[in-house]
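User: quick one
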Amino acid sequence: MKCIKKKVAEELEAGNIRMNHSCPYHPSHFVGQNCTFCYCPFYPCEDPRFGHFIETGRPDKVWSCEECLFIHRHFLVEFALPKIKERRLQPDDHEGMMEIFHEAVEKLWRPGKAIMVVGATSDAGKSMTVAALGRIMLRKGYLCAPFKSQNMSLNSRVTAKGHEIAMVQMLQAQAMGLTTPDYHMNPILLKPKGNTESQVMVEGKPFGDYDVPGYYNDFVPGPGKEIVKRNVDYLKNRYDYVIMEGAGSPAEINIYDKDIANMRAAELADADCILVVNVEWGGSFAYAIGTVELLPPEDRKRIKGIILNNVRGDPEKMREGADELARRCGLPVMGIIPHADVQLPQEDSEAFRGVKTKGNGSMRIAVVKLPRIANFTDLDPLYTEDTTIVFADCPEDITTADAIVIPGTKNTVDDYKWLVSTGIADAIKSMKGKVPILGICGGYQMMGAEIRDPKGIEGKVPGNYKGLGLFNNISYFEEYDKRIIRDKAELVTGEGEVEGYEIHMGMSDVKEKPLFNITNFGRKGEVEGSFREDEMIYGTYIHGVLDKPAFRKKFLSLVKVRGEKPAEGMQTVDDYDKFVDQNLDKLADVFEKGLDMKAFMKIMGVEE
Amino acid sequence: MKSILFLGTSSGAGKTTLDAAFCRYLARQGIKVAPFKGSNLSLNSYVTLGGEEIGMGQAFQAWASGLEPTGDMNPVLLKPAGNGRMQVILRGKPYMDIDRNNAMDRETVMQKACESYDKLVEEFDAVVCEGSGSPVELNLIKTDMANVGMMRARNVTSILVADIERGGVFAAIYGTWLLLPEDVRPLMKGFVINRFRGDASILGDGIEKIEKLTGMRCFGVVPYETLKFPEEDSMSEVGGALGNGDIHEELVKNLDRLIDSAIEAGVDLQGIYELMLE
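Assistant: Done. Structure below.
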C-alpha cells in the first residue's frame, strides 16, 4: 500500500499527462485513455461498479479494480486532479480522497446506454454494423463495448485472461478501440459439435454439452437469463455505450419466449434497437416490416430505426421504397448502406458456403475443407498474400497444390476419419517433402503418429487411430477438459515472433523439435509446436500463427510455384492486425456516409 | 382458373425449382401442364427449337412438364448488360436496349406477355407460373410484370415460397403479405416454407400464428435437399451432383427425388392443385 501511495504522490506531482505513449503497455485499456492515474488515488474505493473483492486465501480480502475504466477517462482526471490540489490532499488521506471520489461519481458517472442491432435474417450484416457503429462512436470520443449474449460459432478467440469468446466480439472490441476485450462481451458461446449437440461455453469456460431441446428447455430458463443480465450490467457500469448484437432474426415467433439472444436481451439491458436488413437477396422491405410487425407491442417500441444494408448499385434507387417503408412501419429508415468492399475476418467460413477458391494469386494453397473446420480465420492472413486458396475436398486438390494447410476442427477424430475416407490423407502423405505442409490445432493433431481417444471423448465411440505420421507425436483425449490460453512465442529458428491462442480438447505427446519458444511472462522455458525443416513440415496449436509476418513469410518462402519461386515485389500485408484496423476504418467510413447521422446520434441520446 | 403463380420472399427462395417440381408432379398424373414466367431477369438463357431465347428456368420447367420449351413460356427476358443497360428479349427475339434514359413501353410489353399466357391457358390443362424476385419491392411494384403485374392482369391465384435457410421466415411471409397491394392480396392463398433442416414440428406454433394473421394456408415445409438444378440466377448456391446420364433425364430424376421427399414431409401438392382448380 505504501508503494502505491508513493506512486500516487508522483502522479499528483506530474499533473494531467493525458496519454503516456512512452509506456510499453500503452494503451493498456482503450485507445485514447488518460494515463495520469496509473495508480488510483482513491484505492480502494470498494465501489462494486468499478471493481470487486478477490479471495486470497488469507483472512483479509483484496480489492481488485484492474478493470476500472472510470479512472482513465479524461473528464475524471480533469475533475479530480484540480480538486485534490485545491484541497492539498496527501495520498494517504483516504477519507479526503473518497470525498472527491463520491463527488466525481455523483457528477460524472452514469450507467452506459445500451443499443442493440437486430437483423431480419442471419447474415443481415449485424456484426459488421456493430463494428462500424462502434468505430464511428470511438472517433467521436465515446467509450463503447460490444455485447452478444449468445453466439453460435466455431470461430472463437481467447481473451487476455484466458477466456474463450466469439471471434466477432473480439473484432468489434478492436473496432471500439478496446485493447483487453473480456468474456462479458460474449457470455454464452455455443460451439456446434457437428451432430446435434453444442458445447456451451459460459463466461469463457466450458459449461456443458446440450442438444437443442435441452438448451431451450433447461439452460435458457435456468441460468441463461441471469448470465445475460449480469454481464450486460457489468459492461453498462463501465462504458458509455454497450452496442449489442442480436442473433438471427428477432421475430422467430415459434421460439419467441425461449430466445435470449434478441428482444429478451434488449429488455434485460433496456436497449433501443436498430433493425438491419440485407438488401442483396431482395425482399428486404417485406423482411423489415414483417420483423417489426411480428414483435409484440412492448418489444416493437424498442425498435427505433431501420438500416438497409449491403446495397449494390446506386443506393438512391432504394430511396423511394425506403420512404414508403418508413411510412408503413412508422419508423425512420436511418441508413441506406452500400456494399462495403472491405477485408475483415468472416463469422462464417467461406468453405461452408460452397466457395471453392479464393483469390487468384500465383501460390496455390490447399486448405483442407474439414467438415467441422474451426477457427478458419487463421487463414485470413493468407488471403492478403499472392495466393489462390483452394478449399480442398478431394485428393486432386492436394496433389496439385504448392502448399498444404490442415486447419483446426471441432472434432479431430471424426474429421480425421473423413480425411482418410476421402483419400485426402493418402494425398497429403504423398506430398511429404515436396511442398510445405502446416497443421494448426486439430490439423496438427492429425499430423502425428497416433490419435488416442480411449474413452470416446472426441469421437462418439472409443478408439485409437493411426495418424498421418508426418510427426511422431501422439495426441490423446483423456479427460473432458479444455486448454484455453494466450501465447506469445518466438520461432526457435530466429525469424521473429508470433502471437495467438490455444483452444483445444486433447493434448499431444511431442516427440519432435519444438517450433516455438513461449515468451509470455512467467512461462519461460515452455515450448510449442513441432517441425521438420528438411521436409518442410510444421505443426502448432497456436491459432493466429499466420497473423504476424514472421512465420507466415517463413512458410510462404518455401513455396515454389510449379517448381519455380514466385516473382518478388508483390505488395503484401505485414502485420495482419494493422491491416484489419485499416479495414475497420474503411467500413466505418462507408456507414458514416450512408447513415443519417443526425437520426443515429438521436438514438444514441446525443443531440448534435 | 387453371393456373397458379409461385411467388418468392426473395431471390433464390426456390421458386424455379418448386415450380418445376410442381410441373413434374402434375405431368406424372397425366395432366397437360406448361410453365410460364411473365418476365425474367437473367443472363442464363436457352434457345428453343424455334430459335427463341428464353430463361433457362423455363426451359428446365418445360422438360419437367415433358415439353419442348417454347418462346411463350417466357415472353419477356431482361438481360443486364452492365452500367444500367439491359437488353429486352420479347417472345424470344431481341426487342430493344433499355437504360436510364431509354425506358421500354411497359404496356406494350405486358400486353405481349399476357397474349403468350392466354395462348398457354388455352392450349394446356394447367399453367404453372413463376414470379420474379420478391413481389413487394416497393420501388418496383408500379412497373412489375411477373408478380403483381400478372396477378392484376389475369387474376392468377398465388402461392408464396419462403426460404427458411437464413432465418426470419415468418417475418418474410408476413411482411410480403402486408406489403402486397390490397387489390391482389386475396389472390395469395397460401405459402410453402422451403429448405428446412431438422424437425419441422418446431415450426408449428409459428405457422399457425401466420395462418391466423393472414388467412393464408400453409401447404407444407419442404426439406433441404442438395440436388443440382440449373442456376437461374447467380445468387443461389449450388450443391449436389448430377449423374452421368442425359442431362434432362438427370434433372427430372432429381425433381422426382425432391417431390418424393416433399410428399414424405407432408407437403400438400395435391392441395395446391385443387387450389388452382377453384
